[in-house]
């Protein structure tokens, strides 16, 4: 069974979707630990409820980003994961950390990348008058939210939609695509090669798999 460590910062609804997929047997992997940079992240409680080791590291205990990420890396590696999954982990990762997990570090981002890397993606989609919005699962590389896209899901933007409306509707899509991509990785169907995502031996385009 492949071993997964999940990093979170908040509610952990994507974590919950991954836990549920494991429990239902749709995802054939074991979540061996959930780690957070926030002690009060609700996702830690979700992990504990599911009997998964859950722990937080306090940024204030470390001199700088590199020191924090190094400690985080050591903590992660103590669980000997095959794959590291970012699920609402809201800190920029340092270069050595990203390099260490190259090809086995994935993220979900609430926009149709390459549109709207960074924060406030729902607000930016509304402000730009976009007709659709979405989420992207991608391999993590040193470029912030810039790694190769594996799979996207989109939703229409309806008249009078608020940021909260978009966030809520999009999360339900995120909960479908993230466990699916993780299962692809677990089955050995997915890899990061030559800065591209490959599925079943085929390179994926800029918007990932269909
Ligand atoms: C999700 O919408 C995820 O895409 C986003 O944070 C939310 C976490 O929700 N991630 C990022 O913005 C990363 N840049 P959750 O804690 O309920 O899974």
List keywords for this structure.
single chain; phosphoribosylglycinamide formyltransferase activity; Formyl_transf_N; globular; alpha/beta; seven-stranded mixed β-sheet; purine biosynthesis; 25% strand; 210 residues; Phosphoribosylglycinamide formyltransferase; GART_AS; binds glycinamide ribonucleotide
Report on the structure:
The protein has 210 residues and is α/β, with parallel strands linked by helices. 33% of the residues lie in helices and 25% in strands. The protein is built from six helices and ten strands. It has helices at 13-23, 42-49, 65-77, 95-100, 121-127, 163-186; strands spanning 2-8, 29-36, 54-56, 83-86, 105-109, 132-139, 149-156, 190-193, 196-199, 202-203. It has a seven-stranded mixed sheet, with helices on one face. A three-stranded antiparallel sheet has the order 8-9-10. The two termini are 27 Å apart. The model has no long low-confidence stretch (mean pLDDT 97). Residues 8, 10-14, 43, 87-88, 108-110, 135, 171, 174 line the site of glycinamide ribonucleotide.
């Amino acid at each position: 069974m492949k071993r997964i460590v999940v990093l979170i910062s908040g509610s952990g609804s994507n974590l919950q979707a991954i836990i549920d997929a494991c429990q239902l047997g749709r995802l054939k992997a074991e979540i061996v630990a959930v780690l957070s940079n926030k002690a009060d992240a609700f996702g830690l409680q979700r992990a504990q409820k599911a009997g998964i080791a859950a722990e937080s590291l306090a940024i204030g205990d470390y001199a700088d980003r590199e020191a924090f990420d190094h400690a985080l890396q050591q903590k992660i590696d103590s669980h000997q994961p095959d794959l590291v999954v970012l699920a609402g982990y809201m800190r920029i990762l340092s270069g050595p950390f990203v390099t260490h997990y190259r090809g086995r570090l994935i993220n979900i981002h609430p926009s149709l990348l390459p549109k709207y890397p960074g924060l406030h993606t729902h607000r930016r989609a509304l402000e730009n008058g976009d007709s659709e919005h979405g989420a992207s699962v991608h391999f993590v590389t040193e470029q912030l939210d810039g790694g190769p896209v594996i799979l996207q899901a989109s939703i229409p933007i309806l008249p009078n939609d608020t940021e909260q409306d978009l966030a809520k509707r999009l999360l339900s899509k995120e909960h479908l695509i993230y466990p699916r991509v993780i299962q692809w990785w677990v089955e050995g169907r997915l890899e990061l090669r030559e800065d591209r995502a490959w599925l079943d031996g085929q390179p994926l385009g800029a918007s990932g798999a269909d």
